[in-house]
Design brief:
Layout: H1 6-13, H2 21-27, H3 37-49, H4 54-61, H5 65-73, H6 81-90, H7 95-104, H8 115-126, H9 131-140
Helix pairs in contact: 4-6, 6-7
């Protein structure tokens, strides 16, 4: 059946009544955030499709492996969006894939009216190099670099 985007789901919902709730959830479970594991499952699917190991991603993201594994498994939760952005960038994810990962992690998406987010969106589109180059780009425009996991919350 495949995953549906929000607009497709909203179109279906216009025709759905309260008594159809369970059927709706059953038919659209692939498209819904039904569990905390949805972020974990999404990321594991991305890594498998791109043939990347978690270890490689954590190294590229400059995130301690043990911490990264706990984030991806759902064992640990971070409130730092930069940690998730580092993982997404290191996993060679597109801007669209990153926005979806942020939604699944219940974090704000990159926002086109926020200058720092705009630079990050450009970085995800243009792929200037490593996290170091992304941080250099941010520094060049007087923006805060992507924080490391050293200041975890």
């Amino acid at each position: 059946m495949g995953e549906k985007n929000t607009r497709e789901l909203e179109k279906i919902l216009k025709e759905t009544h309260a008594e159809g709730f369970e059927q709706y959830c059953k038919e659209n479970k692939e498209s819904m955030n039904l569990s905390e594991r949805s972020f974990s499952e999404y990321m594991k699917g991305i890594l498998a499709r791109k043939k990347l190991t978690q270890q490689t991603v954590f190294l590229k993201a400059d995130i301690p492996e043990r911490y990264g594994y706990k984030i991806l498994s759902g064992e640990k939760h971070t409130r730092q969006r930069d940690v998730i952005l580092r993982i997404c960038y290191a996993a060679e994810m597109s801007l669209e894939e990153t926005q979806r990962a942020l939604r699944k992690y219940e974090m704000p998406e990159l926002y086109a009216k926020n200058p720092r987010d705009v630079l990050l969106m450009i970085a995800f589109n243009e792929r200037p190099g490593s996290i170091i180059e992304v941080n250099e780009l941010l520094n060049q425009y007087g923006m805060e670099p992507l924080r490391t996991s050293g200041t975890q919350e």
